[in-house]
Every structure is written in structure tokens, then in C-alpha cells.
Amino acid sequence: MDRGSRSLLHRLLSRLMAPGRGEVRAMQDALHLEGVLRFVGLFVGTVVLPALMLGWIGIRSIRTEQLDVQGEARRASEAAARTFTEALDRELSTFELGVVNRLESGRSTLDSPKELHPDLVVGLRFDRDLRLEAPFAVEDGARRTRGGPLDMLAWRSVDTFARSGGEPSEAAARFAEAAGHLALPEERARASFDRARMLARAGRGAQAEALLAELAAEDGQRRDPWGFRLGDLVALERAELVLARDSAQGAQALLRLVEGLLADRWTVGFGGEGAVARRALSLAEPHLEPDQVSAARGRIARRSAMLYWAELLLPELDPATAWADAEGVRPGVVRWRTGARALWATTRWEDSLYAFAFDLDSLTSRLKADARAVVAADAPITAFLVAPSEGEPADVVERRTLAPYLPGWSVALALRDADALRADQRWRRALRFGVVALSVGMIALGFMTSVRLIGRELDVARMKADFAASVSHELRSPITQIRLKGESLLLGLADTDEEREQAYHSIVRESERLSRLVDNVLDFAAIERGAKRYALRPGDLGESVRRALVSMESSLEFKDMTLEVVLPDDLPAVHHDADAVGQCVINLVGNAAKYSADGETIRLVARAAEGELHGRHQPVIEVAVIDNGIGIAPHDLRQIFEPFYRSRDSLARRRKGTGIGLTITKYIMEAHGGDILVTSKPGKGSTFTLRFPLTPPPDDEGGSRTSPRTRPPRSHLGA
Ligand code: ADP
Question: Ligand 1 centre from 646 Cα, in Å?
Fold first, then answer.
């Protein structure tokens, strides 16, 4: 028992000497407050602190979760998508700006498209009537049909003859004859041209010239079955003739031919212009500056490439739609559309529509590489370009459309190893769940423990309060009786001898009761302080019991009870403290009387026996007190030896008591190296048996025990 508790008991006991009801109440309140304070401490320790701790761990775990890989992936994705789209915006808005600048400054937007953008393959201009204006032309009407194989067969055999070194004038004659067999004018014109060539080879220059002039005048714009414009072929042949006479003049004529071709619109669907220009340049090359040649060759190549793309992409460019699109917007504002092979940028300027085609394959494969490049190598994500026809890829974290530049396209950022990430997440979730479950479990456990403990604390507090109330009552009633009877004797109020004798008996009885109570309370206080000593001396136990019983006589008699005592004279001597043993007997017989009806018989039987005591089979002396009283419920049996414990049973409650008699008795028995047993049946009665060992307790020196073998049972809050 700690000092605070002990001093509380002291105060309690000292106040009991003058126990005003208010003071007892105050004491109860103090006990209650103490209980509440302890409960608060317990609650904070077992519920609030673990809850806070686990809450903290939970919040930390959630915060770490936010910093986890997926959060990282999301942030990385957003950043990468932003970088990518910003770069694309910059790139294509630069293109738009370049186009508008050129339109405003009057520079050609159609030549050298690569200068505007590396993926730009062709630029076209249409007029209001949706006709292709520059730099190409589309031949109106149906495409010219080629000659039948038979007709062309006639021409072919002559051509083979000429190529395999056949005599030129002979070849010229044969071409003239073949022309007669050919059905279509372009075929005939071609045969005439070949005839002129052969005449020139044969040295009949004047004749050739005349024929060529005639052809240029009549069929200059006509194309031969291979798509060559006869005018171009004639010009080439003439320049070649000049070259044969005068190389410098001829080279200049050829160069002029090339320049003329480049300045002119080429016709989509034929492309003979490119071949003629290349042939002219290769003939003139030996007589020209290398720079001149390479510049011209570059221009021819670019124009040819553009022509190739124009032919390829024309079917997917619908100028009508593009016009309609562009109509509503300010001139110079670019509209973007995606076709099968090209990304189209169209804009309006004055009366023309400009259409620029980007090679979609080249553009998107470069963008794909760019998309990959915007993601760090160690990032948990990958980036890719998604075409309009492609579905949503799996595990996309971030997706951004590439409008307006690439309508329908988007850049998607997806988890690199989604399975591993999901497994990781599952594990984290399980862990968090575990932590939460653990915290809930711990809190619930703490709460249950707290509730149980507070229940017990309250029980003890209530028992102590009951104790204080009982003691004050138990003290008051004998004192009142003694005083009353004493005063009536003193004042001569008892008239008859019988009345006087009754008064004397009453005074004796009440004194005995008072002394029993005071003995118990003082002993209990001493026991709790650890200050109780017993003088164990060998002696006649029966005698000690007998002496104790004497002090009970008048109480028993008053209740009209019979005490049957069986005390053999030959009981062996036992080391004992006669007063303490007397107190035990008085407590047990007192209880037997208290918890039995008036007029009942109580038996006290002492005997030598053998029994298991402290784990050792040994001879013992048993003193049993047997009653036929109210008995004790099994659940009470376990607790009746605890300090202040009183049965809640209503029958027991009707009897006044303090709840310390059995505690003291048990303590005394343990101090004697013995014990106390109880058997009881509710409604039938109880038997309390004190058992003393015959051999003295081992640590008994000189018959004085300063400390018990076992500590007295303590109250939970301390007294
Ligand atoms: P009290 O002053 O209440 O009698 P005790 O410590 O002597 O205190 O007894 C504790 C409780 O044990 C009693 O309140 C009563 O309920 C029960 N008890 C003790 N002796 C008997 C008995 N002989 N018959 C029935 N109940 C008993």
C-alpha cells in the first residue's frame, strides 16, 4: 500500500472516531474522485495515446502513399505531356507564323517547303474555282487514253530498230510510215517527233528543223503516250542541235529550257517535265559551272519530289472542304486536318487557298521519338503517340489531345510496369489495412480493459464507502446502547432487578461487539500498514478457542442460538498467537450467528487431521465453524476474503458488516502457516475451516512473526 493510500486510511480511521455523516460523504467523494482520476489516467494511457500513436502512423503511411510510385508516375506523366505538347505547339505555330509571314511579304510559300518545316512535303495554291493554281496544274478532263498495243507495236519496232543502231534515215522513213498506222493524234505526233530526231541524226538538219517547228506549232502542248509534252521534247531536241554546233550556245539554250520548265507549272499525273529538265541539265552539264548545275539539279529534285507528293496526296485533299473550312476564318489563320497520308494545313489569302501537306509518317515517327524522349529513362512511365484509329492503350495515366494541330491524335503516358505497381499497391493497402485493424484492435482492447478496470475500481470505491458507512454505524449503535443502558442504570430508571440485569447484559454484549469491531478495524489498519505482529508460541489451541467463545456467549444467547462445541482435550500443541486465533474464532462464529436465523444451532468442531497444506501433505489441526444459515453464492466464494468485499445478495446485505473480518482471519491464518477453507451452499449453510500446521512455520523465530508469509490481500485502490 502506498503512502498516499495509507494516509487516506489514516484520515478515514481518525474521522471514524467522530464520524459525522457529512465527513463520511466527503470521504466517499474523495474516493470517487481518486477513482475517476485514475480512470482518466488509465484511459489516456490505454486508449488515447495508442490511438494518437496509431493515427500518427496512419497519417504518415497515407502521406508516404501519396509520395509513392503512382503519384510520382502521375506527376512525371503530367510534366512529360506538358513538355511534349508545348514543344509541338511551338513547332507548328512557328510554321504557321512562317506561312503568314511569307504570304504577307509576297514570298513564295510553295517553293522549298522544307524551309518552312522539315516534314512539309508539298504546298499547293488553289483559286476561287478550286483549280490548282501553283506550282502544279491538273489536266482537265479525263486522262488521255494510251494507244492500243497493236498500234504502238508498229512504233515500238521502229524504236527498237533506231535504238539498236539502225540507219537513221531508214529509221526516219520507218517512223513516217508507222505514223500512218497509228490511230491517236498523240501517237502520230510522237512518231513525227521521232522521225525528226532521226532526220537530224541522218544529217538532214533543215528537214528536221522544219518538222520540229511544225510539231511545236501544231502539237506543242500535246503529250505523247508517255506523258511528255511534245513542245518540251522539241525544245530539248532543238537545244541539242544547237549544242552540236556551238556548245556554249547550246548549254545556254538547255539551261533556259530547264529554267523555263521550273518556272512553269508541272502537270500532276504526268511528270514528263522533270525528266526533260533532268535530261537537258545532264546534256548541258559539261559546259556549265558546277554551282549552276547543282543549284538547278536541287531545284529539279525538289520540284520532282513535290510533284510526286502532289500526285500521291491530291486524292485526299478536298479543296472544296478546305475552302469551306477556311471561309469563316480570318485570312492567314491556319486550319488543320488529318488525311490518310498527310497532315494538311490550309489557309486563305486574298483569292487563293493554300494547302500544305506534311508527311504524316515522317512527322508522327519523329513525334513518337520526341514523346519517348520527354520521359526520363528511370521514370515508371512510357509515352506514345496514339493515332485516331487506335484505341485507348492500357494503364494510361495521362492523355492529351494534340488538337488543333493533329486532330484526333493524342499523346498518352502509361505505366511502364503496371503489374508490379499494382502488386506493390496491393501490398501497401494490405499493410495499411493491417495497421488500421491493429489500431482498432488495440483501442478496443484498451477500452475494454479500461472499462473492466474502472468497473473494479468503482466496486472497490463503493466497497470502501460501504465500509466507512458500516463502521460508523457499527460504532454508533453499541455506543448508543451502552450509553442508554448506563444512563438508565445511573438515573435509576430500571425499576426491577430483571430490567437492571438486562441493562448489564446489554452493556456487556454491546461492549463485546464494540471491542470486536475496534479490534478488527485496528488490526486491519495494522495489517495494511504491515505493522501487525503475532507472537506464536506453542500452546493449547483448544484453550484459546474456548476463551474466545466465552466473549461470544452473550451475543449468541441474545439471539437465542445454540453453540455446539466439539473440542477434544488431547489436541496436540500448536504454535499460535492465542489472541489472534481468538479473533479468528470470534469472526467466524460471529459471521455464523449473523448470517443464520435466530434460534439456529452453530457447531464448532476441532480435530486433528491430515491434509494438503501449502503443497505439502501434513498433519493439521482443523477448527471448523458450521452453520445452517443463508449460505454463500459460488461467485461470492472467490471474493469474500478480499478486503471490504461483502456479498451483494439481499439476504446478506440485510446484515450489517464491514467486509474485513474474513480478510483479517485469512491473514492471521497465513501468518500461522495455515489457511482457511470454505464450503457453502446458498440456503443450506456454510462451513469455514481454519487449518493449523502442527509443525511451526519455518521462519518462525522465537515465536514472533513480524511479517506474514504472504502479504495481506490489497484493496485495488489501496485503503
Ligand atoms: P462482514 O462484516 O460483511 O461479515 P466478512 O469479511 O466477515 O465481512 O465476510 C465477508 C462476506 O462473506 C460477508 O459480507 C458475507 O456475505 C459472507 N459471509 C461470511 N461468513 C458467512 C456465513 N457464515 N454465512 C453466509 N455468508 C457469510
Answer: 6
Residue having the nearest C-alpha atom to atom 20 of ligand 1? 591
Contact between 42 and 450 under an 8 Å Cβ cutoff? The reply is yes
Residue with the smallest CA separation from ligand 1 atom 8 is 659
| Kind plus residue range of the DSSP H or E element containing 379 | none
The arithmetic mean of pLDDT across residues 112-125, rounded, is 91
**Local structure of 124: helix, strand or coil:** strand
CA 16 – ligand 1 centroid, Å = 22
Using alpha carbons, select from 18, 12, 7 the residue that is nearest to residue 466.
Answer: 12
For the packed helices 49-66 and 418-490, what is the interaxial angle rounded to 10 degrees? Answer: 170
> Taking the domains of the chain in order of start, what are their residue ranges?
140-316, 517-705
Indicate whether this model's pTM tops 0.85.
no
Count CB neighbours of 495 within 10 A: 9
- Cβ of 187 below 6 Å from ligand 1: no
Contact 713, 524 (CB under 8 A): no
Q: Cβ of 384: how many Cβ atoms within 10 Å?
A: 17
Q: Tens digit of pLDDT for each residue in 338-372?
A: 988 999 999 999 889 999 999 999 999 999 999 88
Please tell me the distance from the alpha carbon of residue 129 to that of residue 434, in angstroms, as a whole number: 76
Options 1.20.1510, 1.25.40, 3.10.20, 1.10.10; CATH for 140-316 is 1.25.40
Helix, strand or coil, per DSSP, at residue 49: helix
Cβ of residue 520 lying under 6 Å from some atom of ligand 1: no
From the CA of 641, give the closest atom in ligand 1. Answer: 6
What pLDDT shows up at residue 21? 46
User: Who contacts 60 (Cβ-Cβ below 8 Å, separation ≥6)?
Assistant: none
Q: Do domains 140-316 and 517-705 have the same CATH topology?
A: no
Only one residue has cell 554546233, namely: 245
Convert the pLDDT of each residue in 319-341 to its tens digit: 878 888 878 788 889 999 998 89
Ligand 1 binding pocket mutation candidate from 595, 644, 668, 689 (most atoms within 8 A of CB): 595
d(CA 440, CA 434): 10
- Is the Cβ atom of 632 under 6 angstroms away from ligand 1? yes
Residue 394: which residues within 8 A CB-CB, separation 6 or more? 414, 418
How many angstroms separate the CA atoms of 30 and 281, rounded?
Answer: 120
pLDDT in tens, 82-98: 999 999 999 999 999 99
- C-alpha to C-alpha distance for 510 and 555, rounded to whole angstroms: 8
Tens digits of residue pLDDT in 604-617:
999 999 999 888 89
Query: HSE of 183 in the Cβ direction (CA atoms, 13 Å)?
Result: 9
**From the centroid of its chain, how far is CA 127?**
63
How far is ligand 1, taken at its centre, from the CA of residue 640, in Å? 7
Q: How far is the CA of 659 from the centre of ligand 1 (A)?
A: 7
**Cβ atoms within 10 Å of 700's Cβ, excluding its own:** 17
Pocket test for ligand 1, best of 521, 632, 664, 677 (most atoms within 8 A of CB): 632
Q: What is the pLDDT of residue 53?
A: 80
Distance of alpha carbon 556 from alpha carbon 576, whole angstroms: 26
659 lines ligand 1 (CB under 6 A): yes
Cell 463485546 belongs to which residue?
512
Q: Considering the domain 517-705, what is its CATH architecture?
A: 2-Layer Sandwich (3.30)
In DSSP terms, which residues pair with 343 in a beta bridge?
Answer: 338, 358
